[in-house]
Design brief:
Strand order of the largest sheet: 9-8-10-11-13-12-17
Distance between the termini: 69 Å
Number of strands: 19
Largest sheet: 7 strands, mixed
Shape: globular
Amino acid sequence: MKIFSEIPSDIPKTPVLDKVNLPKDIKNLTSIELKKLADDVRAHMLYSVGQSGGHLGGGLGVVELTVVLHYLYDTPDDKIVWDVGHQAYPHKILTERKDRLTSIRQKDGLAPFPNREESRYDAFGVGHSSTSVSAALGMAIANQDTDKKVVAVIGDGAMTAGMAFEGLAHAGHIKPNMLIVLNDNDMSISENVGGLNNYFSRIWASKVYKGIRKSGKSFLENLPQAHHIARKVETQMKAMVAPGSIFEELGLNYIGPIDGHDTNELVKVIGNLKDFDGPQFLHIITKKGAGLDPAEADRIGFHAIGKIRPLDASKKTNGPKYQDVFGQWIVDMAKQDEDLMAITPAMREGSGLVNFSQEFPERFFDVAIAEQHAVTLAAGMACEGKKPIVAIYSTFLQRAYDQLIHDVAIQNLNVLFAIDRAGLVGEDGPTHSGNYDLAFLRCIPNMIIAVPADENETRKLLTTAFMHQGPVAVRYPRGCGINSRIDPELKPLEIGKGRLINKRESEVIVINFGALFGTAEKVAQELEATLIDMRFVKPLDEVLLAEHTKAKKIIVTIEDGAISGGAGSAVNEWAQENNIKSQTIICGIPDEFIEHASREEMIEMAGLDANSIIAKVKKYLP
């Protein structure tokens, strides 16, 4: 493997990759050329991501595996399902998209994850983790009467989710022909890779061993007890040198661990496994960030990077990110209340909990990619008098909706949901946008929903929510706000009370919900409209609404969430119940998936920029 000390700023020379546009171009390469192709793919990926920004570490770790899979399998007829999608950049390079990789995560550019509409080689669209085994299993069942092969590639991080084991258990039960590759990037399960492990892996995946197993099974199939003993002996032999017993017990044929950066080894083992019957489980050891020294040393920091040479070199001065506002608040609040507990599903860094985890390690719980468990864990803590805070991205809270209702809301427990990445998130696109939380939370009894307008309001409303008795959600967006001055005092506001920003005599009132407050100010100024900031979606401040919607012909609501069932819908329902005759114009995210772009571009695509809203309102003005 060629090692890079830094990300190349000039286009690298890639003579073998230059000859490859489709996976079929790889088929006739020699073993030496396969290694060189892997070096070329890594170089091209480093350069491209350096220009565009994007996910880096995961993809670098699976370069050799990707080359070998496309060498051995006949894609797109054979299916490769990539879990999460962070690791799919090399796959995109080898499947007709190498010249467009610098456009990844940009408007009208390549999607950040596998996308069925983008390429016939993307067998399954992903973004959230731990779906690959179930999806690949479905494909294997659907193709059981054909010669098509199915492969799932799942990382050790994704293996922490229960859904992955649900898929594994089902595969072990019905035993379809499929290959599951565990990409263990030296962060869990096993760290030991050596000649003995590789030697046994070659034995277990060899055609001779396959023949022995098949013959033995036929001979012993009428002797259940003998067959059971033979199976146990085989399993225990493997367990002596490999951590695969759990997978064997699930009904999978465990192979490994082997070196995931050794193309020759991968070709030998996977080449043999292709012809095995039943579900095969191959455990490979890789390094996240492999081939780039700084990325190997800092696997978290190089999970994703920004542009090395931004197109716009000017630096914009911003205040703290919302996640950092939350991070400072939770440390301050924890110093005042020893019952505060913090829970996050594998988002310690992204949710701003690093400092808290270091200062209060005994009160910090990273439950890995287990959103359902996170919510019910919080419910259990609340039952015993603790005050848990679930720090979670909006898009991932979707995965724990049943627990939110059944385990928290019905029991009216004191759980605070600090919902990060609410609304349109930008470059990660529709799989990661948090558009639906207002709609799916608003319909739940006992739930309070707060929508801060800026950083200072975020701190105030977090304090308010924490001191409330019952379930509360505070949702805030990705990135920075308007850089408002933050009051350090931990003093609660009144639940369900909004604020009047300015009062005008025009026939228009603008009602803001959340972080598009700056846009609401521009709209109100242009239309000479009254502006109120609601602070809460549930309960609504009906007194404030009644007072300031009088004599207004047009009510404009603004929110960074889905129109259907969202905050504007709540205002519309209130207006109907109170026989308000004003025209309500709801400005939110329309009933469509907004494709990846910058957050600002996505807001414009959704019609939520000030100019679009003003134009929409003016259609109703005389």
